[in-house]
Amino acid sequence: MFQFESFLGLSFHHGITTKVGGVSKAPYAYMNTNFFSNDNHEDVMTNIKMAIDSLQMSAKTIVATRQVHGVNILNITEDFNMSTLKQVDTAGTALDNFKVYIAEGFDGLMTNRDDVILMTFYADCVPILFYDSNRHVVMALHSGWRGTQQRFVEKAIDAMSFNYGCMSHDLKVGIGQSAGVCCYEIDRPVVDAFGEQFDQATLKKHLIQKSDEKYHIDLKRLNEGMLLKKGIKAKNIAINLECTICHPERYHSHRYHQGGPRGSMSAFMQLKG
Asked: What angle do CA 40, 42, 44 make, to 5 degrees?
């Protein structure tokens, strides 16, 4: 389990799983938390329970994303109607006394409730976690190249401001393990798509040209740059620089397995009461 040191001691629980631990069998071994995969359902529920127990989370309601590489954020307010979400069958599993819901079509979750655990999935894309200690709000994003190209973090900060009055200077942000600039290859059409949203000086800082058509991109630093421009203090941004593709023994990676069967990691967040 990875945790940001700068988050420890604050009024929320958080963590991003790795491959280490868990009970799943190959090719999902070992700590696979993705119940959308073909992994054994009971094993996945056991893995999730192990993860949230290790983080000392007490809530019995989990809201998980069903991601589409978009920029939609579900705001789980005090009066949010959970019945509008699809419920996962947890009967007879380690999460038997939990309610687990799926937020279809959302790549971000946000709440000011302390009775809900936020859950998002990753296997090379960038986990980005937000906390506002003043407004007591948490948010988790899944931002791959599409989310980053659509400036998801900027939209997320605006959403926190609009819904809860959050101020950029109050926000603490963690950018988790994901594919690094060392390995994350994109082609010319993707570069052109980024060129529609970012100036050339910015792209030059975060792109490495490998051939006429192939480039490597630094999604972590590109997201960090957007956070800084939105007024997040540099001291309030933490980054896990490890590359998920470089370390298949530690992290699940979609690209390392070339799109084949593999597990996924999850970020979990819950406010303390």
From this structure: 70
In tens, the pLDDT along 135-167 reads 999 999 999 999 999 999 999 999 999 999 999
- Structurally, how many domains does the chain consist of? 1
Element (H, E) at 203: helix 200-206
Reported as a single tens digit per residue, the pLDDT across 30-82 is 999 999 999 999 999 999 999 999 999 999 999 999 999 999 999 999 999 99
CATH number at residue 211: 3.60.140.10
SS3 145: helix
Q: Which two tokens stand for residue 203?
A: 């792209």
Nearest to 267 by CA among 190, 201, 173, 145: 173
* Domain with 217 in it: 5-271
- The CA dihedral of 171, 174, 180, 184, to the nearest 10 degrees, is -60
3-state SS class at 59: coil
Closest CA to 146 of 72, 73, 69, 202: 69
Q: Give CA–CA dist 134/49, Å, rounded.
A: 30
Both tokens assigned to 50: 């192990």
DSSP letter at 243 equals: B
